[in-house]
Amino acid sequence: MEIGRKIQRLRREKDLTQEQMAAALGVTSAAVSKWETSAAIPDVGMLCPLARLLGTTVDDLLEFRPALEPEEINALLKERRKLFEADRLEEAAASCEALLREYPNDLQLKCAAAGLYIMYMPSCSNTDWIDRQMERAVALLEESRKTIDPSLAANARSMLVNLYIMREELDRALAILDEEPVVQLNARTVRANILLRKGELEEAEKLYQTELWSAGRDAALALVGLYNTASRREEWERALERVDTAMEVERVLRTEELGGLTGSLHMLRAEVLRRQGKPDESMESLWSYVDRSLAQWKRMNSGEELRSAFYDRLDVCASGMSAAYLARYVRAALEESEDLAPLREREDFQALLARLAEAEAE
């Protein structure tokens, strides 16, 4: 805490000498000097009189804040991501928990920390650690979804539903979905229409772009769901059609320009083609998946903002994972995939793994 400098600054603003302040508080001028040089801090019983004398509050004097700003949370968690990516998992989790103890009522921080735990769970092979982190993420999100902030609550519920699905607690997932408010109208589009009529074109355009992006994303995800139902029935032609349609949606609506699903869709396409006995075409899709993913990751982590001429009013945040870490995760996933096991002995498959290993080393 910079309490010493703050005491000195406020004293000078009040045009008080150290001797005058000492006399008013019933302490020695040497004590005041020690406070201002941070050689000592005021006793607890002195904080209230000191704050009143300086025209401030104890909270302001101690720089107390019950919660962090979003950009502060991002900066603090960025340092912890580095620990996760260095496979220092216990240290990373302990560091996150220390931060949560420092801000025990910060629901935004709890939601963000849970998201960090979820983000790095798939890359860990220690099932006990995964179970512990999943349990902790659930607890943090259960608290976060009780916030009065509708955006934060919706984000927490969304992650919580996915966690309960992963844990096969399907009834609990459905119960949370039932908490979602019934949407009677599309407030974003209605607001955009109003702003348009008012002549506030930039704000209206931003809302329209946001709605288009969301609609494109929802359409692609629905088609992935239809792909999954077709795959479970082993209707491979229908599954391939669903994937290709999702890719066309992303191309037409240009959601792929801001990190859409197209890279992952190539992966799904590769799995279907392999099932259909088309190994060469399957490898082409795998290469497309890796090349697109590497390019997107590097772009998202280069420090430059993601931009699209079609969605030029939108700002898209990077995940925070490094391209090298993601390359390692994808390489492990390809090596362990049962669906792609018949392709592993191919030279082009081994070359693909080498390409990912090269990106991991960069």
Protein described:
By secondary structure, the protein is mainly α. It folds into 3 domains: 3-61, 434 Repressor (Amino-terminal Domain) (Orthogonal Bundle), CATH 1.10.260.40; 70-179, Tetratricopeptide repeat domain (Serine Threonine Protein Phosphatase 5, Tetratricopeptide repeat); 206-361, Serine Threonine Protein Phosphatase 5, Tetratricopeptide repeat. The protein is 71% helix and 0% strand. Helix 6 runs antiparallel to helix 7 (89-102), helix 12 (187-198) runs antiparallel to helix 13 and helix 14 packs antiparallel against helix 15. The protein is elongated. The mean pLDDT is 88.
Features:
about 350 residues; mainly alpha; Serine Threonine Protein Phosphatase 5, Tetratricopeptide repeat; 3 domains
Question: What CATH architecture of the largest domain do you see?
Answer: Alpha Horseshoe
Helix percent reads: over 70%
What does the radius of gyration come to? Answer: 27 Å
- CATH topology category name of the largest domain: Serine Threonine Protein Phosphatase 5, Tetratricopeptide repeat
List segments where confidence is low: pLDDT < 50 over at least 5 consecutive residues: none
Helix-strand category: mainly alpha
Distance between the termini: 39 Å
